[in-house]
Structures are given as structure tokens and as C-alpha cells.
Amino acid sequence: MRLSKLVGERLKDASSGTNVKSHNYLLRAGYLKQVCNGIFTMLTPAQLINLKIQNIIRQEMNALGGQEVLFPVVMPREMWEKSGRYNSIGQEMVRFKDRNDHDMLLGMTHEEAAVHLCQNTIKSYDQLPFMIYQIQTKFRDEARPRAGLIRVKEFTMKDAYSFHTDKKELQNFYQKVYDAYNRIFKRIGMKKFIAVKSDTGMMGGDIAHEFMLLTDIGEDSIVICPHCDYKANMEVAVSTEDTISFEDSSIKEVYTSNAKSIEEVCNYLKIKPQQTIKAVCYAIVGDDKNTVIVFIRGDKEVNEAKLKRIVGKEIAVKDLSETGLVKGNIGCLNLQVKDCQILFDKSLENTCGMVTGANKEEYHISGINLKRDIPDAKYYDLAKVKEGEKCPICGKPLTIERGIEIGNIFQLGTKYTKSMEMTITMPDGKPINPLMACYGIGVGRALASVAEESSDAKGLVWPISIAPWQVYFCPLRLDDENVKTQAEKLEKSLAKEFELLYDDRNLSAGIKLTDSELMGIPFRVVISPRSLQNEEAEITIRKSGEKIMVKLCELNNTLHDLINKEMEELNG
Amino acid sequence: MRLSKLVGERLKDASSGTNVKSHNYLLRAGYLKQVCNGIFTMLTPAQLINLKIQNIIRQEMNALGGQEVLFPVVMPREMWEKSGRYNSIGQEMVRFKDRNDHDMLLGMTHEEAAVHLCQNTIKSYDQLPFMIYQIQTKFRDEARPRAGLIRVKEFTMKDAYSFHTDKKELQNFYQKVYDAYNRIFKRIGMKKFIAVKSDTGMMGGDIAHEFMLLTDIGEDSIVICPHCDYKANMEVAVSTEDTISFEDSSIKEVYTSNAKSIEEVCNYLKIKPQQTIKAVCYAIVGDDKNTVIVFIRGDKEVNEAKLKRIVGKEIAVKDLSETGLVKGNIGCLNLQVKDCQILFDKSLENTCGMVTGANKEEYHISGINLKRDIPDAKYYDLAKVKEGEKCPICGKPLTIERGIEIGNIFQLGTKYTKSMEMTITMPDGKPINPLMACYGIGVGRALASVAEESSDAKGLVWPISIAPWQVYFCPLRLDDENVKTQAEKLEKSLAKEFELLYDDRNLSAGIKLTDSELMGIPFRVVISPRSLQNEEAEITIRKSGEKIMVKLCELNNTLHDLINKEMEELNG
Which residues of chain B are within 8 Å of residue A65 when distances are taken between CB atoms? Predict the structure, then answer.
């Protein structure tokens, strides 16, 4: 490929609003162009990376006996009504009517399509286990697309579905895919990634893991025990902090003026947040009548993923003033509210001397003894884990890191085979609903995650396994007759053996070298009037910045060695 | 791959309603499963073929310097409003509102996206010519999906867009892609295909060609001159038939009772259809007021694609009785109708002695002399060419064949760059709208077309270049210990060197051999207790049915030779 003809500009400054490194560099280096919010065109360098990532994924899926199929993007409502998800999934799923007024949708995932395919096709236990997978465009109408390719509306995804006769077989296979995922991320050049326990969310099932790339720009919080093997997404991390009790006393109404927030109440009463009970109010999405109030210790935050699992429905923070509640003074004693589910966080269990709202303006109540005053309170693990809390496994202090979800795997069990009525016949002749697991990797997000982790101050730094080109050939002073002649010769010889991007532009060394760094091609070969005097070329390793002068006759061999070395590091 | 684990059934009878061979076999052999009307899941054998077809296309596009990109499936209204197609394309384009109430659409083609990408990215004449392409899912809400993968709603398509500074350069490049398309279809194993001139339709531009696979199940009619090089889609084929005149006489109102159709009028008056003038009435789609009436010789049919181009709008046959016209008696003399465009086919020009409707019940008018009686008539080429008409190039008789459109290429000119305001700077510093061409191939339709052309009475017959597997290994009597041991050995040795489908089922020879033929794998290797006595295997060439006995030690070499021979035939 000649750079002069490559569609895409190299820009000095990215357009505004791109404060994420990978997004910034991918725009500046001519990999991406935004079509509209959360929707991008991938230019050739990005698409070449996509194809390489897809091939690595394909190899690992095929190695597990995976069968590549292709499900449709557009599916009919009926299929998703059977599974119950036509109604349970919110606005992120696009629904439309076709020309014959049939309800259709754009697939965000394909459990329904997988069951539809295997239903009546797979009939007997001895056809299991097997895994089908596809690499296909998905659309998810994200409320807040962000960070370039990290969170988009349209994306290419590999999604796989395995089918099993029993739980043990499912777990064995799940472990194999878990291992394959580790290999995939390593092979595409990710370094700091881990697998953590995760929420099953809209997918359903019991057990799920997310693969996380640890990075400050991640939107997920991950709870990690540096002392044992415990790793969990914040959404499922178990809070095991001890409760704190204060001096037991009798209930007393105390004047708190216009103090409303925990901070204001604490300042007014000269107490610590740990002594207060915070009320957080929620609406149930799609239900105008029922509400939820969580009481939690003042220094803690509600983990809404946990709450959602307990409530069993989508929830959203809501001001409940219109129901007669006094905002900022809601308390758990003598609370009068209709059609409301009231939950307590474990952090309050058996505590004494606590302060809660008085359910009227300007007053709180002190001296609450939960056991004594609210004997029928129901306690749940509802709090977000905080840095330094005890590990639920080994008891040592936990740390919290940020991460990007780069893959996820779910033990779905019979959720879909049951609802869609897929059965297979077992050796004893009886029908069962087979068990399923599913496994996803977003191709574009993988690309962006590598860009995020591997880039440096000069630009992108692609791992050799997924680089759009292996070699950036950069002759300087193309106006020099000798350079030009040699460059044309070398282009031919390099293009025969390597994936080559040839910077054929007659521009300054500054621009050309800066562009090569921005674009992140692993090996740069420079020739100049000076290097040619010694019949030499200069190879620069993008990753380390190391420079090597080689004789022209040794150029290809040296490049092969360098490429092989980097490939071995990734695959080894 | 082991057949026992392959998802997909082999069926004796296809489900009802599949009267097209490719559709029938693809369903029966486990390649496809219908999700809903016009939407399919591709099973592994079909997806393997898809990937091979895509790779052949990719190689040929890359050989022309094509740059692979990826445009989004979902695009915003604004982009398509600029080109004018948001409104001009009908119901076949899916439109929906996203969660923020923005109008979005599903791409059926990507001219707008291509211009959006290149606009402001490509600035100067010296960056041209170039071609970008993608292989991406498309959705087209077909009114009448048919014949399995031949006409579907959702499909994978390669679409390419080239940009040029002038017409000559565009034509040169267009020719190169034309040649590449011929290579692609040959390489994927098509035999009877031709390129024909075609209508530009909703794409716009001047010149277009379709690549057509000639087959009786094709929905297009192709006009071919067996004597010279003239080939055209019926939609654009020029009718050059001589006009026929009858004895000149004066106008006379004649009683025709309730004769309405051309046939009835001819029977009643004892004349030939050639002496009648037929009226065909049309509504303009999306326009309640204006209508169109075409007068054409009674033995001819209106070519609606030609009519549409002349009218410049979508048209649809309509009964105009409600406007006061007398159905079956509409005539071109003294026709009183408002807001109606009246067109005459060339076949009527200067004819005499013709019969037309009297614009009242039970009467026609005879003795029409067009020149004399309707001096201001406007004549156009509006008729469908009929078998045996004169070739517009050499004058010899034309033939008409049926074909499936397997690819299309368009010289778009500046239609999109002008409407979307893309400019590049020329050497003289002046801006111009670059010229464009676009080039499409549907991957799934190519698969189905090959299936249609290459299948025989036993099932599918895949060309080696796109076969899902090269070799179908089919040991008979797997209950025999010796067969089983040898089969396992051979499976390993074959799988190392070939794409292998291993029929590991312990079923009757009848079922296994029939399945291998139905699935269409190019080479079948059979071992049986008997063949093993001589340390032999039987190779069957699917295409010819030819059988070859080979020593086991020669098996791999013989297969390599056979495969290479077939590959050479396709690529040579």
C-alpha cells in the first residue's frame, strides 16, 4: 500500500471532545471517521486490524471445534417473545415495523437465533456438546456512547453458543472457552487483563465472567484482592464490612434545621456519616405505581446492580416527594408510604444509636436501635464495596481498579432452551432442555482497548499480530535521484515478503517520521542519502524506540527475525 | 469436522414451497435455515462457502489497489437527505427512530457513506484514482423475497466505490473492475454468465452493467444477439422493430359490443393485434393527481423500466375509470383527461389504418392515421423487445434468455459528489466534484447461483474453490474393527492436508453415500472392509461421478493432484 493513495488523513490535533487516548489517536491517525454519535466508519488500517483480530478469534474458536455460522441482524418479534426478551429489554434494542407491518428488531445478541437454529435440528444427546459461533454486526442503541470504539452503537462481535446435556459438561466446556479467551487476548497483544466474576444482567443464568483490561479510562470498577484470587466486577462484589454500632439510647426527635444531605446532617449534629441512615428512593422502570426505598449506612453507596437483582426489575433513582415523602428527611421509623418495597443494607443490621430522618421537615430521629425499633427489617447485601474493605475470601484489604470489559462469558443454563421449548432426547429416551453457555468478544472494542493500552506519547503502538502493516517503509529525500531509485527497488523486495506501507510522499523527514509513529506500525525502515552511502537502512522498533542500522542486503532477514521474535512473545 | 457433530440435518424432502433447485438443496443439505420470510441463518457449510467467496473477491479487489473499509449498517437520515435518496427510495429501505427520536435507516448500499468518508479526507487530484470497498451486511425490505438466497431481505454484499478526476480515467478503471468481476465469477465456479447493459435505477448515473448467470429460474430477461456482441437487460434493450402500416382510410366509429381486451376487439373486428392501439394507464407513486397513459401497438408490452426513466418517477399500473375514462375503450383520438402525460410507443409512428378505443362504451374507432389524426403525438422507445426482433447493432434476430443478476457496476458520475458537495482541487487550483463508480456483488446470491448452476439430480456440486470442505471421508461399516482403526488413522492423515468432513456415523452405506452427494463435497473417499483387503480407497469425483481406486499410501497424493487440477481449471 502506498501512503499517498491511502484514504485517511493524519491530523496534528484530534477534533474536540476526545479525551480518551485511543479515540484521539485512532481519529488522528486516519483509522476512524465518525458518522454520527456512536457510529463510525472504519478506514482501511482499522479494517485490516479487525480482520486480523477476527482470524485469531476464529482460530481459537475452531480449535475448540466451534462451528462458524451467520445469524441475521434483523429478526422477527416472535422469536424474542418466546424468550421473554422482546419486552424485558429496554430502549437499547431497536424495534421497527417492516413494510408488511411486522414487528422486527436489530439483534444485540443471538441466544434466540442460536436456539432457533438448533431446535428440531439437534435432537439427541449424542450430538452434544457443540459450539456454534458467528462474527456479525450488532446494533445496540446506547444511551451514552463514549470513548470512540470503546462504547458504540454499532459494532462487530464474535458471539458463540455452546449446548450441553449436563452442568458438569457445561462447566468443563466453559473452562475451555475461558482459557481460549485468555489466549485470544494475549495473542492480540493485551497485557493487563484479568477475568472477574460478573453480573449476568439481561442474559440470565447463574455464573458469568467478564474479561477486563485494567485501565484508568475503564467504565467498570473491579474489586481485586491482591492477596488471594478474588476478582469481581463491582456489580457483584460482596461487601463483608463489619457493622459499626454506637451507644445504645432511646429514640429522640432532634431539630436539624434545613440539613438534608448526609454531610449537612453530620455537620449539624457533629456526628460521622457512619452513624446515619441514608434513604435512597427508586422507581421501577415501566411501573408507575410501585417504588423501592433502600436504607443504607450514610457513608455507603447503593450498588444498583445488586438492588436490581433483588428487585428483579429495572430500577432508576427517583425523587418520591410527590408521594408525600419529605426529601432529605426520609427515615425508616414510622415510614408511611404505599406500594413501596423497603430494603435495608447489611451494614445497618443490629446497629444502635443511629440517626435517621423524621419524615418531616427540619427534624431527624436519633438513637435508633434497628433490632429494637424496626424488628421486621429485611437486610440484603446492597452496598458498593469500598477500597480497603475485607476480601470475602481471605479477609485482607481489597483494592479497586478501573477496567474495560473486553469479553464476557455466561453459563446460561436452560433459560433459553426452556422458554423456547428446545428439547433433546437423553439415553433413557426422556426429553430434557439442554444447557447453554454463551461467549462474546467485541472486535472493535478489542482494537480500541489494545490502542489504549499500547499507545505512548507519540501515538499508537500495534502489536505485530494485529498491526495493519508489519513494516512502514519511509525513504527520506525522495527528491534525491539515488534515494528514489533505491526506494523503488526496496519497495518491491519488501512488499514481496512483508505487509508493507510505503510512505511515497515527497515530504519533510519531520512529517514522515511523525506520521509513522502516530500510525503505530511495528517496524519502520528509513533510507536517506546518508544511509545509502553505506548501503544501509535504519530499522526503528516502534515499541521500544530502538534503532538498528542494517546493510540493505540484510534488511529482509533482520525484519523477519524481529517480526518472528515479537510474534513468539505474543503466542508463547 | 466430524459429521456427527455438525449442526444441520440432511433431509429427504425439502419443506413445501421450494420449487427452486438451489433453495431446495441448500435447505435439504443443512446449509440454510429460514428465520422468517427472506431472512436466513447460514449454517457452517454455507458460512465456509461465504468466507471463501469473500476471500476471492478480496483478492481481486486488493489486486486493483482496493482499500477495504467498513461502513455502518445503520446511518442517519441527514446523510441520505443530502443525496436525495432518503425520500426517493421507497419502502424497501428500512427507516426507524432511535431512542433520541433521530431518524435512522438501514443501508442497502453505501454511496452516501463513501462520499461522507472521502469528503474532506481526499482533497487533491493527485490522491485519485482510488477504490474503497467493504464486505458488509445489508438489509433491503423486499416486497417479494423468493428462491431462498436468490432474493432475500438481509444479505452480505461486497460494495466498492471508486473516485476519479475525469471520465476517461473512470472508464479505464471501470473496465478493470469489469474484468475483475469476470475473473471473480469464473474463480468461484460459474460457467454461463455474461455482462449486459443495464438500467441505472435508483443508483443514478449513465452507464451500468449487470453480470448475469443465465438460468431458467432467473427473474431478469436478457436480450442477446447471437450474431454480434449485443447483450442488454430487457429493462434497457432497444426495440428497433419496423412499424407496420395498414391501408389508409378515413376515421370511422365502429360498434364493438362489449369487446374490451385486444384479443376480444381483434376477434370482433377480425383484425390482428398489430392493427390495434393499446392504452396502458399508470399512476405516479406518491402523486395522487398526475397520471400517465401509454399508447402502444396491441401486440406489444410496455417496458416499465423505460417508461420510468422517461417519466422520471416511480410508476404503477392503475385503473383510471374513476377519472371518467372508459376501461377497455380508451383511445388516443379526442381523449379528454386532465393532469395526464400521454406517450406513444415508436411502434405506432406514422402508421395508418389503426384501431383505437372510442372513449365510450361499446365503440372503437378504425382508420386512425397517426400523423394525420394525432399530429402532436410524442414517440418514445417504450416497448419490451420480443424474441426475434432485430438486433439494434447488427440487425439480425435477437434471442431472449432468463438470468440471475450476480453483480452490477455503475458509472455514477457526479450524482453523489455534487449533491453531497464533495470537491477536490485540480492542478489549476480549481475545485471539481470528482466522478464516481460503484460495484456490487452479493455473496449469498453468488453462493446460491453456483448451487443453482452446478447441482445435479443427486444434489449440490461445489466447485473446489468455494467448497465448504475439499474431501468427504466416508468409511463404510464403522462397526468393523479394521475399518474403524483405519478410518481413525486416515482421518488424521487427511485432516492434516485437506479440509476434511469426516462422516463418522455408523449408518448404512446408502444413507452416507446419498448424504455425501447431496452435500456436494468435490471429492469423496470411501473405505470399506473390501477395499481395505487391497489396502485401497475409492475416490469419487462429485462433478463427473468418476471413481478411482487408489492404494492408501497414494491417497493423499492423488487427492492433491485432483484438487490442483480442478483449481487450475477455475483460475486458468
Answer: 5
